[in-house]
């Protein structure tokens, strides 16, 4: 019994030292990639934080074209700034965060349960750039579940969908005006730009 205890302490200290050495080797800069050890510690910590009950939650919103359309608009507006329209995380902001926004099309994300994805969207991830979006309202809960559907869809996002989302990505007013002018010019003057997007999260 006592031996096991000592072994655990020794292992813990060893793992801690490795993590520390890795950290100090990379400095504490937010640039660069987290080491495998850091990623493992972060994932394990999150797994412990999400209760079994939450992890096994079922997505209550139906998997329909309408759900995806809602979530796509929402994603383009609130998430793509860091995660990119296709979920790759290849955005200026997503790459400069530490840890960076992951490529959510990959198994590391897709293997998370619906409940875990939902939990992350509602609560964010502590000590990272991932904000929590939930405010406990029925609407926010529903929106988050829709986003879970969309995250499942990320590996299959089409070019057509990406183009649609590009129109919904937030821009500075100056950029927006420039784009509108360009579109008018390309389509001939009577083009009515109706893609005006008025989506809010809460
Ligand atoms: C300010 C940047 C930022 C915004 C905006 C943002 N995220 Fe994130 N998100 C992150 C970062 C950084 C991570 C990685 C955190 C980590 O490593 O644990 C992340 C992780 C996640 C994860 C977990 C993925 C995984 O494999 O661990 C989910 C799910 C997620 N975000 C969904 C969303 C949704 C949905 C939105 C929009 C409502 C959103 N995020 C908006 C930065 C952002």
Helical stretch tally: 10
Shape: globular
Q: What is the succession of H and E elements?
A: HHHHHHHHHH
CATH topology of the domain at 38-171: Cytochrome Bc1 Complex, Chain D, domain 2
Given as residue ranges, the uncertain stretches (5+ residues, pLDDT < 50) are 191-200
Helix content: 55-70%
Overall average residue pLDDT: 81
Number of strands: 0
The CATH architecture of the domain at 38-171: Orthogonal Bundle
Level-1 CATH class name of the domain at 38-171: Mainly Alpha
Would you tell me the structural class of the helices and strands?
mainly alpha
CATH superfamily of the domain at 38-171: Cytochrome c-like domain
Topology of helices and strands:
Blueprint: H1 2-26, H2 36-49, H3 52-55, H4 65-83, H5 92-96, H6 107-110, H7 114-123, H8 138-153, H9 159-168, H10 173-187
Helix pairs in contact: 4-8, 4-9, 7-8
